[in-house]
Amino acid sequence: MSGGEFRHLSVMPKEVLAYLAPKAGEIYLDGTVGGGGHARLILEASAPDGRLIGLDRDPAALKKAGEVLAPFGDRAVLRHGNFSEASQILQSLGVERVDGILLDLGVSSHQLDAVERGFSFRADAPLDMRMDTTSGQTAADVLASASAEELTRIFREYGEERWAGRIARRIVALRPDKPLLTTEQLADLVRDTVPGGHKPARIHPATRVFQALRIHVNGELDHVAQGISRGLELLKTGGRMVVISFHSLEDRIVKQFFQRQAQRCICPPQLPYCSCGHEARLEILTRKAVRAGEEEVADNPRARSAVLRAARRLD
Questions:
Q1: Final residue of a domain: which of 195, 218, 241?
Q2: Helix (H) or strand (E) holding 311
Q3: Measured in whole angstroms, how far is the alpha carbon of residue 10 from the centre of its chain?
Q4: Do residues 102 and 16 lie in contact, with contact meaning Cβ atoms separated by under 8 Å?
Q5: DSSP string of 170-233?
Q6: H helix or E strand, kind and range, residue 80
Q7: Domain limits at 129?
Q8: In whole angstroms, what is the distance from residue 286 CA to residue 267 CA?
Q9: Would you call 264 exposed, middle or buried from its count of C-beta atoms within 10 A (0-12, 13-18, 19+)?
Q10: Residue 42 backbone phi and psi in degrees, to 5
Q11: Is 77 helix (H, G, I), strand (E, B) or coil?
Q12: Which residues contact 80 (CB under 8 A, 6 or more apart)?
């Protein structure tokens, strides 16, 4: 699929509406508006005068969202930017607090399917992997400049790749004569490097390396941590935050942040009395992580790895 057609299936739409509970007259922030699927549902549920501010770092996503949300007129406002920058963007719009925040993390269906973006090795393409194609290093830039130690850290920390060191050393050894510029080159290198790489397997041996590079190129985990922390400050009292994660590293950040903000005391357990003065700021609405149902997974296999968590601001 080329980049001209933006296609993205919104994950767990019913669950998002149930936990976000949109109402008329309220303001919502969709920090990862994508193709506008969730945003359209929120605007419909908050009719006739609910408003939505949609952010995305991907210009192609914003273009599609603009088409999908055009029928809502000025009830929908779209801006190019990362959700970790939401406070500045809202300030520029004269909005101090919002009634609800939705973050649908990770890579979209369109980004995976658009060959020229380089997120997938299913077809040969330039190693780009940037969600925001207007700025930043590409995956090829990282592979060309990072040390073996840094590449090892990236593959191990973000991809939980068992053979991280071996792959990193192979990249550094070969790149002076054969720089890695395409997805096929990288996938072949990993297959040739890891033990049993050419044996048939359910998961391609390069899957974790591609995931790790994408997370690093886009600073995804840093943006998640910053985005949910700053998002809490942007919520009105009683406002809700719904976050959908697609891998364990993202979900761990969200889960631990929600748990910490829901605690009344964060003192070390060995202290005999509370001295932190911490007050619970969130009520966790999802006692367990919410996952897509079998019917949705059958229609959209990428929903299988989705995890939804929700919380409500108390103060």
A1: 218
A2: strand 307-313
A3: 13
A4: yes
A5: HHHHHTTTS---BHHHHHHHHHHHSTTTTS--SS-TTHHHHHHHHHHHHTHHHHHHHHHHHHHH
A6: strand 76-80
A7: 123-218
A8: 24
A9: exposed
A10: -65, -40
A11: strand
A12: 55, 56, 57, 59, 62
What are residue 13's phi and psi, to 5 degrees? -60, -40
Residues of the chain with confidence (pLDDT) below 50:
1-6
Burial per residue of 200-209, b for 16 or more beta-carbon CB atoms within 10 angstroms, e otherwise: eeeebbbbbb
β-strand pairing of 235-245 with 307-313? antiparallel
Cα R_g (the chain), whole angstroms: 21
Pick from 58, 3, 16: nearest CA to 33: 58
Q: Which two tokens stand for residue 265?
A: 């005391």
Residue 293 in 3-state DSSP? coil
Residue 246 three-state SS: coil
Do 164 and 250 lie in one domain? The reply is no
SS3 of 270, please?
A: coil
> Does a structural domain hold residue 281?
yes
Residue 234 and residue 29 in contact, taking contact as beta carbons nearer than 8 Å:
yes
Q: 136 with 285, same domain?
A: no
- Tell me, yes or no, whether 106 and 228 share the same domain: yes
Helices and strands in the chain, H and E counts: 13, 7
Can you spell out the DSSP letters for 20-58?
H---TT-EEEETT-TTSHHHHHHHHHTTTT-EEEEEES-
The residues, ordered by sequence, that sit 6+ positions from 138 with a Cβ below 8 Å of its Cβ are 118, 126, 127, 128, 129, 130, 217
Distance CA 65, CA 253 (A): 28
Q: At which of 218, 233, 250 does a domain end? A: 218
- What is the CATH classification number for the domain harbouring 197? 1.10.150.170
Q: What tokens appear for 185 in the block?
A: 């080159």
Judgement on whether residues 187 and 138 belong to the same structural domain of the protein: yes
6 lies in a domain? no
Residue 8 has a pLDDT of: 56
pLDDT of residue 265: 80
Q: Does a structural domain hold residue 251?
A: yes
| 8 in a structural domain | no
3-class DSSP state for residue 234? helix
Residue 50, domain CATH: 3.40.50.150
